[in-house]
Amino acid sequence: MFGSRWITAAVGMALASLSLAADYKLTIIHTNDLHARVEPVVISRQEYGGYARLATAIQEELGAAENALLLDAGDVFQGTLYFNVYGGLADAAIMNYIGYSAMAVGNHEFDRGAPTLAKFAQQLQFPLLSANLDVAGDLDLKDLIRPSVVTEVGGERIGIIGATTPDLPSISAMPETVIMKDWVESVNKEAEALTARGINKIILLSHSAYEVDVANGPKLRHVDVIVGGHSHTPLGEFENPLPGTRQPEGKYPTELKDVDGNPLLVVQAWEWGKMLGRLEVTFDENGVVKSHAGTPRLIDSTVAEDPIVATMVQAFRVPIEEMMTKPIATAEEAIPQGASRSGESAMGNFIADAMLHATKVNGVVAAFMNGGGVRAGYEAGKVTFGTAITVQPFANTLAVVDVKGAELKSMLEHGVATFPEGSGALLHPSANFRYVVDVTRPAGDRVVEATLDGQALDMSKTYRICLNSFTAGGGDAHANLKTRTGSYYYDTGLIDVDASVEYIKSLGGTVKPVMDGRITVRR
What we know:
The chain has 523 residues and is α/β, with parallel strands linked by helices. It folds into 2 domains: 23-318, Metallo-dependent phosphatases (Purple Acid Phosphatase, chain A, domain 2), CATH 3.60.21.10; 326-522, 5'-Nucleotidase, C-terminal domain (5'-nucleotidase,  domain 2). The strands form 7 sheets. Strands 1, 4, 5, 6, 8, 16, 17 and 18 form an 8-stranded mixed β-sheet that branches. Helix 2 (51-64) packs antiparallel against helix 9, helix 4 (89-98) packs antiparallel against helix 9 and helix 10 (346-359) packs across helix 14. It is globular and about 75 Å long. The model is unreliable at 1-20 (pLDDT under 50).
């Protein structure tokens, strides 16, 4: 009897051992929406991100994992002078050194057309992926963008599929020779092909937005993890608030079920290298997600800089410093900052006009610049790029949002609530928008008139407007932007100062002050 029990126990232990042996753990290290943030960004006088610190954190995480992949979900292009000067090649060199395994194609990868993207892809030592882009007819890109790749990690084959936002044709310079295919159909087709090859662990690199990944995930088959980008979404729980105005918008990972009811995990790691995603996934012997662990890591100044990457960055910076002295315009007269927090400002007007000029292609009807973001003005005479950065030093991007007329009026009211004391929340409008403020009325009811293209603002109508990313994220206590009814939010990735430079070019390189009564204050 004793022997029988012993045999039964031994068999049970052996079976448990076999079960454990069949499990496979993979650590996915990931970034997205780096947007040429080669150097750290500064938020409230603290540094975050930058390739040198990111490299250190990545190597630490890779070194601690038994089986690991390093992935990027797209939009390496556009956002700083490093892209203006190098067209992504500085990023490519550093990403190669760090050791990425694959990258999805983002919409901003098309900002300078197919030739620039092709040069970038040719420099990469890892594949560029998108299953829903057909590039076979493009002479520059054919053979450079693949739908998927298979890589072996710890003796297991892992399938990695790419996907790009379905909005690509309307928000980028996508050439006519590139064909956009159905997102769900393309991903499922590629996943089916990988499964037919015996691959049962599949990751989707999706530059499509968190909400798209969550909406489309239940329509997918065979995909285990979606590593996302495009919406710059922070996920997870943190002991302290994240730097800046945007806070986590979901769990890390977000747990879904695919079309067959199997587990599907969705992750994203905010933006600009400020955060490094780290997801541990345990698969059973059939390649089904069994469990998961991990959390994103904030890349702040407590992370040491990798000395080799820091040296690479310093070398790439030399022409950037030269560019700061480059003339970009001639100002016929000074364009002063003026009282940008308490009334109309010539510089505020100029920036708002530049914002509208840059985003009309996105269907924007008006643009608004926060007074607190206007930090200086242009002196008469030569205007350098360095001067432009002094005026707009925060490297905010341009964001496109939908708001109701009533919500826009509430934003205007918030900007003048402290009058006669000025406020950084004051909104300077583009030339086609006017509003009148009566400071003798109570706060919240001071905007007595607001017109767009000469027509009174319709409180029930939806308007597509442009704000900088700081304001759009609720900066200057614009809390109503977090509760707006419009669901559309698109970060163009275009830096505000770059939009001003492009606007200057459209004016022929000569600028002058405009004070045309956009904000009238009755005291």
